[in-house]
Amino acid sequence: VQLQASGGGLVQAGDSLRLSCAASGLPFSSYSMGWFRQAPGKEREFVAAISWSGGTTGYADSVKGRFTISRDNAKNTVYLQMNSLKPEDTAVYHCAGRAGGYKRSYSVYDYWGQGTLVTVSS
Length: 122
What we know:
- By secondary structure, the protein is mainly beta.
- The protein contains no helices and eleven strands.
- The N and C termini lie far apart (37 Å).
- The model has no long low-confidence stretch (mean pLDDT 96).
């Protein structure tokens, strides 16, 4: 199983980025997917998650209204559209997958990608 995250980079506050996570080796359309992030010196935190069908999504309060998670099951890819980025969004963003319904706890995810770094300057 591989989850390949991409799309990170250095941007200014207020800019947008779209992260992608391409999955292989798992029945993607049966897996809920999540995005988590970890800033230096901080614990990994939930960002957003989406059910296997894409019909249900959830967001951390800190990103609600600014970030949008989506998926394309035909392409085995999950996306995170990030708008109005803030310096506090700076972190390594990881995608993760789990069989069954989506959860906000990182400990219940089965597979993880390597992460992509997002740096937001003020």
